[in-house]
What we know:
By secondary structure, the chain is an alpha/beta fold. The chain folds into two domains: 3-162, 3-Layer(aba) Sandwich (Rossmann fold); 187-479, Alpha-Beta Horseshoe (pyruvate-formate lyase- activating enzyme). 42% of the residues lie in helices and 18% in strands. Helix 9 packs parallel to helix 10, helix 10 (291-299) crosses helix 12 and helix 13 (357-369) packs parallel to helix 16 (420-435). It is globular.
Amino acid sequence: MRPLLISAAAENFNKDIDEPAFSTSAPPLGLLYVATYAIQHGQDVQVVDQATFGWSNEKLLDHVKKFKPDVVGFTILSESISNAKILADKMKTEDPNLKIVFGNYLPTFYARKMLEQYPWLDACVRGDGEEIFTALLEAWERGRPLEEIPGISYREAGKIKENPDRQLTKDLDTLPIPDRKLLPDIYKNKMCGLELSKRKFTIMVSSRGCPYACSFCACTAFTKGSFRARSVDSVFKEICELGSMGYKDIILVDDNFTLKKNRVIDLCQRIRKEKLDIFFTTDGRVNHSDLNLYRHMATAGFTALMLGFESGVQRLLDYYNKKITLDMSRDAVKLARKGGIDVIIGAFLIGAPDETYQEVLQTIHFIKTLDIDFPQLILTRALPGTSIFKNLAKRQILDEDLYWEKGVDIIDLPGTILKRKALKQIVNERFPGIFLRPSYLTRAFYRNLRSRYRREIVNSHLTPSDIKKVGRVFKNALDLF
Length: 481
């Protein structure tokens, strides 16, 4: 068959809006996995990343007419579903014989609801998509019954059918390394609208899933609480392959990269032995912090680490089911600094259902006590598939029928203490002070002198226009993410 896989842009992607501060123009890795697997099984697949290509809906629809696919598959997340629906509807109207397939998180949770509400949708792929999507293509191609394919929900003879779940792929080494050549080399690692470096950039994943169950994260529901890791041999092979292709800046986007300490150390030792000139970024949990681990990571080129602190209030950490304490967060930063990590970025959530303004101030004060480089302030959002969403719906605080597609910022629900306008004012008044402290500025200056990674970033952006972009951080902190 001739499938086209699309990562649809957000509905307002082509409007004159500011770019989010932490935006990576990253390839749609899930689609690359699905496409590469299908190609290995004889399918003629093309991948389109609408936002990064800068394509309007009209241009994308014109491309579909020229490519003439038999099947169009969309990767569906809350931020892209509105535009994906518009595109899919128009495609089906143009060609009623075209098969439309949705996959990823949202279709995994709401496949039946989607098929009930979207008459142009033919099937949903639930869970890991590589084997399921290829099996679906082969069944359509050969006229086989779809009931034999686990992991799909579909429309047949006017009825909606749902097959049992397919077991998640246990051995990730059986999956091919995603073929980056399926997309043009146009991706950039960005922050505040700036390219962090001029190095060739991509993302990769070394494991899937996380055994923790943070209430704001849908990963647990999607992966059924499992953690599956590729072998160190497989991960190292991909890194070397990327290095040979000229990639020098890689983000590992695992759900929980540092869960298995010895595995990470083994990988780092191999990277260091190979003397690869690659900057790596990844994230980790504060309760996995370990001095020996961080030293190995730093010497292997892991220059930036993103840690999920989430809050400066223990009560809220417990609400988020983080299973960490404030002292763990403090210790994690100290260990990462001592271990040689160049840049530490911290994620913080603001806007839990009963969070108070005083607790918001506590979190901002807590940020000031941590020796991190940049705090990422995010409004707590009830996203489909998360336990926060389910609990709020069960308590009838959230209308599931209204928010199942996109979720909702909790502060926009009735009964919350925090109000958007007042919260933004407080944050915008207090956030700049985090960066203007003499201690912060002094530490940043000396770290820039010692770190090649930080110098590359600074030296690339000492222009008036770039400095102006960085100034956005001080003006509307909550609007950046």
